[in-house]
Specification:
One of its GO terms (molecular function) is magnesium ion binding. This is GTPase Obg. Keywords: Cytoplasm, GTP-binding, Hydrolase, Magnesium, Metal-binding, Nucleotide-binding. With 327 residues, the chain is α/β, with parallel strands linked by helices. It is 15% helix and 24% strand. It is built from 5 helices and 14 strands. It has a 6-stranded mixed beta sheet, with helices on both faces. It has a 5-stranded mixed beta sheet with strand order 3-1-8-5-6, with no helix packed on it. The two termini are 29 Å apart.
């Protein structure tokens, strides 16, 4: 899913309420019929709805405006006007909506969950409501109330089982391509991945889990350097984290500590998640080198070795991930 879209801004407008009716009853045998104007119907709402079949905001990328139907006017015989039709904006789970001030106004976490983002205007009251002892035949009714209008920004924080964390060129995209059907762009320069990629990893007995390749972190990302906060926030929504340290790193454990520190500075709660440390590009190592690298790490943080190129260690890596997810 290299065409991942995680940010969409849409101009939304709910429907005006319908006008109340100022009708006076006129029938053959009732020469002085009173007011019988019905109320107007409410305008249509703009509603955000969770859809577990959607993974990105891609379907909304060309949606610039969304407008709900206005309410129908009231009519004689105290007939209330029909409601304006609501407009639904389908979004993936984990989508938040922000108003023009940047405040989060809604968050979708469940399939089928609905949240009204903009309420339709109330319908106006018909003239029957204004009848009194001093005014038997009011000839006025209320207009409908206006709907709401403005820009809403939709943002998706990825919901994945495993988030890949590593410096640029750590081999995250290569791993994702090796274990799933995702086809991320892979090239030999920093920040190849500018947007997160999602892949569904097949596991034993037709089971599967979702892996997210998150853009590379560099030192200072927590302060907004490089790609900064925009991508660090994707890591918040992953169940477990998989740290990737390339075999050709100059100092494997130090590289892990830098990554860990960036997450800690951004949001200390990220380190409460379960995580796995792995050494990628293990085809470059012999057994003696692997032992030397493992000695850099404390006893409770020993890394797993794998190679996306030769497939070495991928089955074991998937086993460890599954155990962490469902242990």
């Amino acid at each position: 899913m290299s065409n991942f879209v995680d940010y969409v801004k849409i101009h939304c407008k709910s429907g005006h309420g319908g006008a109340g009716s100022a009708h006076l009853r006129r029938e053959k045998y009732i020469p002085k019929g009173g007011p019988d104007g019905g109320d107007g119907g409410r305008g249509g709402h703009v509603i955000m709805k969770g859809d577990s079949h959607e993974w990105t905001l891609l379907p909304l990328r060309f949606t610039r405006h969304v407008k709900a139907e206005r309410g129908h006017n009231g009519a004689k015989n105290q007939l209330t006007g029909g409601y304006g039709e609501d407009v639904y904006i389908k979004v993936p789970l984990g989508t938040i909506a922000k108003n023009e001030e940047g405040e989060v106004i809604a968050e979708i976490m469940e399939d089928g969950q609905e949240i009204i983002l903009m309420h339709g205007g109330k319908g106006g009251l018909g003239n029957e409501h204004f009848k009194s002892s001093t005014n038997q035949t009011p000839r006025y009714a209320q207009p409908g109330m206006p709907g709401e209008e403005g820009f809403i920004t939709f943002e998706l924080k990825i919901l994945a089982d495993v988030g890949l964390v590593g410096f640029p060129n750590a081999g995250k995209s290569t791993l994702l391509a090796a274990v799933s059907a995702a086809k991320p762009k892979i090239a030999d320069y920093a920040f190849t991945t500018l947007t997160p990629n999602l892949g569904i990893v097949d596991y034993r007995n037709y089971k599967s889990f979702v892996m997210a390749d998150i853009p590379g972190i560099i030192e200072g990302a927590a302060e907004g350097k490089g790609l900064g906060h925009r991508f660090l926030r994707h890591i918040e929504r992953n169940s477990i984290l998989l740290f990737l340290i390339p075999a050709d790193s100059e100092s494997h454990y130090k590289e892990f500590e830098i990554l860990e520190n960036e997450l800690k500075k951004y949001n200390p709660e990220l380190l409460d998640k379960d995580y796995i440390i792995s050494i990628s590009k293990a085809d470059l190592l012999d057994d003696e080198l692997k032992q030397d690298i493992s000695k850099e790490f404390p006893e409770n943080r020993k890394p797993i070795y794998f190679s996306s190129v030769t497939q070495e260690g991928l089955t074991e890596l998937k086993d460890v991930i599954w155990k962490k997810l469902h242990g």
